[in-house]
């Protein structure tokens, strides 16, 4: 059951991670870029418990209540916990109480972006249905699915659907903004020349592996791979590494010292694209090195797409900030600040 809960958290988190940057565990994660100027706020002095219908944010012509805020805060806290492999329980909200006033600023900005996105962007209900179906898959009963929803911060499926819809609309909007900006080769070359130090990289080895417990299991998997078996499918079926099994065993590219010594040595010395059997303290790894990059300056041809992405993101950020600035955003931090304890 625990694995199903965490799987659900990852499924739901993917949509959020597409438009967010991970934050520290003490602050629930945002779902839109951080504001460049703070919105007007009421003094954040501790208050008596407010009514759920108390307005805590006014964004343009729309009002948001304490109940709206509490729902978003609960889901954000759950995402932080789930990212650390911990199922959410209501008791854990108290550990994040001090973050509530700051999260209100982000909450209001998120809703501002959603308002802007809704003007020209819609998501087909079938898309949300498919996401819910994917999240629902693997649970034996509605009761198990409901329990998993609770562990990821959602009180019910309706909250899940609303969150998925908002994320999809916002992501489509942000993608459309970035798509408006294109950059020629001369500008990309100039950015590269001015930021050459940023493109220096250590040596890298791009690796995939299948982790099993015994040498006999490792030899069996090695033989299967050498015989032409699908590596990704074997990884999904047999690997004991939960972090990479779902990715077909792909670990991405690692630098020297990123892994334990035996794994590190094989990654930087084994022949390319030839499966090896390597033992570490974690078990036996069927390891394949797919690519190596030498240390030094990454070539422009390799980083040009990244530069264009960065330039588009920066331009989109400025555009988005300008659009949000046109909305009148006011927040009432006193209403979300926990009462002072005596």
From TrEMBL:
Keywords in alphabetical order: Isomerase, Rotamase, Signal
Q: Which residues form the signal peptide?
A: 1-18
Entry keyword annotation includes Isomerase: yes
InterPro entries reported for this sequence: PPIase_dom_sf (IPR046357), PPIase_PpiC (IPR000297), PPIase_PpiC_CS (IPR023058), PrsA_foldase (IPR050245), Trigger_fact/SurA_dom_sf (IPR027304)
Q: Where is the composition biased (Pro residues)?
A: 25-43
Chain residue ranges for the region called Disordered: 19-53
Q: Where is the PpiC domain?
A: 202-291
> What name has this protein been given in UniProt?
Foldase protein PrsA
């Amino acid at each position: 059951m625990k694995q199903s809960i965490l799987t659900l958290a990852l499924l739901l988190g993917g949509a959020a991670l597409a438009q967010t940057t991970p934050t520290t565990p003490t602050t629930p994660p945002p779902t839109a870029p951080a504001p460049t100027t703070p919105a007007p706020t009421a003094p954040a002095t501790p208050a008596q418990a407010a009514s759920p219908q108390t307005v805590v944010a006014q964004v343009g012509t729309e009002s948001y209540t304490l109940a709206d805020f509490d729902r978003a805060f609960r889901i954000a806290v759950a995402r932080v916990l789930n990212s650390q492999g911990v199922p959410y329980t209501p008791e854990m909200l108290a550990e994040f109480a001090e973050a509530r006033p700051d999260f209100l600023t982000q909450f209001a900005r998120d809703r501002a972006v959603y308002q802007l996105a809704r003007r020209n962007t819609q998501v087909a209900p079938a898309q949300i249905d498919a996401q819910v179906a994917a999240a629902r898959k693997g649970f034996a009963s509605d009761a198990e699915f409901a329990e998993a929803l609770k562990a990821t911060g959602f009180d019910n499926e309706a909250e899940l659907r609303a969150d998925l819809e908002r994320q999809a609309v916002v992501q489509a909007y942000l993608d459309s903004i970035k798509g408006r900006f294109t950059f020629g080769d001369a500008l990309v070359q100039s950015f590269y020349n001015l930021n050459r130090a940023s493109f220096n990289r250590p040596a890298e080895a791009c690796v995939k592996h299948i982790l099993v417990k015994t040498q006999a299991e490792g030899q069996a998997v090695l033989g299967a791979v050498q015989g032409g078996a699908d590596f990704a499918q074997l990884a999904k079926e047999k690997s004991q590494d939960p972090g990479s099994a779902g990715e077909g065993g792909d670990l991405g590219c690692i630098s020297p010292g990123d892994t334990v010594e035996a794994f590190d040595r094989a990654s930087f010395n084994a022949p390319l694209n030839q499966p090896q059997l390597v033992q570490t303290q974690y078990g036996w790894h069927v390891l394949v090195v797919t690519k190596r990059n030498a240390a030094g300056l990454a070539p422009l041809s390799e980083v040009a797409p990244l530069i264009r992405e960065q330039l588009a993101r920066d331009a989109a950020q400025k555009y988005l900030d300008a659009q949000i600035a046109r909305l009148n955003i006011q927040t009432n931090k006193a209403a979300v600040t926990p009462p002072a304890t005596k």
